[in-house]
UniProtKB/TrEMBL annotation:
Annotated Restriction system protein Mrr-like N-terminal domain residues: 6-91
EC code: 3.1.21.-
GO molecular function terms listed in the Swiss-Prot or TrEMBL record: endonuclease activity; hydrolase activity
Descriptive protein name: Restriction endonuclease
Enzyme class at the top of the EC tree: hydrolase
Domain Restriction endonuclease type IV Mrr: 161-279
Coiled-coil ranges (or none): none
Species this protein is from: Psychrobacter glacincola
Length: 319
């Protein structure tokens, strides 16, 4: 089973809360894991960014939306109890609950800000159609922007000369840490006499370790086959080398990948266009930060050191 979206959690959360007891946020996790028959792997899966467990985060957002729309009361931070309004939804379907929550969230946002028709349409679309949490929507938007940048990187590379591409990949490998502190560790070979070796990087001052490079600037739709990898392996052998990196703007065939993986007398790493763009992006070669978004969360240690008012709850405070 796949990890349920946060709007699939609403009815199960409501039924767990039907005992009218106060639930700590973390207490919902285990019963919901059992309800959805999640495996340990699914329950412990993290976001690609490493910023938290996906399922736990979805529970947290579902609870927050319930509190914001009045279905659950929040007597204090991190604790939830079924409200009078929530009790009226116990006999409703998950979809009926979703419709109510999304409508109420749309009304809340409309009250909080006056925006253009375009902005309002975007906001309504996010709330009424998305099955992802706001955090997941943020990650998805970032991934879309990042992939578009990958495409731009490759398209730009294809407008440059083959020799410029060779210089680029040598510079990239040095950015990635190969060559270490060796001065002028990377170089490209003479263009007309490279013998299948386009560049090399010295791993140490004495030049005892060398990484040989082949760089092929092909159209993204092109596929590099096994013969090209065999030729590169032969060039390594002819230069008494056993480490090579084959980098291209296109992709490799299955046979080419298998051949490189099964070499016994040399280690050849294949970097296709997608992986090349990812490395260029990750190591900041020819790209710059356009903007930084800072997302803050509550400092629980700070607030826990401030005494609670045990005589009141958030639901009965004066308006």
């Amino acid at each position: 089973m796949t990890i349920p979206h946060f709007d699939d959690l609403r009815k199960p959360i409501l039924m767990l809360s039907s005992d009218s007891e106060v639930w700590k946020k973390s207490e919902f996790t285990e019963p919901l894991i059992k309800h959805f028959n999640l495996t340990d792997e699914e329950a412990s899966k993290e976001y690609e960014s490493g910023n938290g467990l996906i399922f736990v985060d979805r529970i947290s957002w579902a609870l927050s939306y319930f509190a914001l729309t009045g279905i659950l009361d929040r007597p204090k931070r991190g604790y939830y109890v079924l409200s009078s309004l929530g009790k009226s939804f116990l006999d409703k379907t998950n979809e009926e609950i979703n419709v109510f929550v999304k409508q109420k969230m749309a009304e809340r946002q409309a009250e909080k800000s006056s925006v253009t028709d375009l902005g309002e349409n975007i906001r309504k679309n996010d709330i009424n159609q998305s099955t992802n949490t706001p955090q997941e929507q943020l990650y998805a938007s970032y991934e879309t922007i990042r992939q578009e940048t990958y495409d731009e990187i490759l398209d730009t590379i294809l407008t440059k000369t083959p020799m410029a591409f060779e210089r680029l990949v040598v510079e990239l490998l040095q950015k990635m840490g190969y060559g270490g502190a060796v001065e002028k560790a990377g170089r490209i070979t003479q263009y007309t006499k490279d013998g299948g070796i386009d560049g090399e990087i010295y791993e140490d001052v004495l030049g005892l370790g060398r990484i040989h490079i082949q760089a092929k600037r092909y159209q993204k739709s092109n596929t590099i086959g096994r013969p090209d990898i065999q030729s590169f392996a032969g060039a390594l052998l002819g230069d008494n080398a056993n480490k090579g990196v084959f980098i291209t703007t296109s992709k490799f065939s299955t046979d080419a990948t298998a051949y490189a993986q099964n070499l016994s007398n040399a280690r050849i790493v294949l970097i296709d266009g997608q992986k090349l763009a990812e490395y260029i992006y990750k190591y900041g070669l020819g790209v710059q930060v356009e903007q930084t978004i800072s997302i803050k969360k509550l400092d629980t240690d700070y607030w826990d050191n401030i005494p609670d008012d045990v005589s009141s709850t958030m639901s009965n405070l004066p308006i």
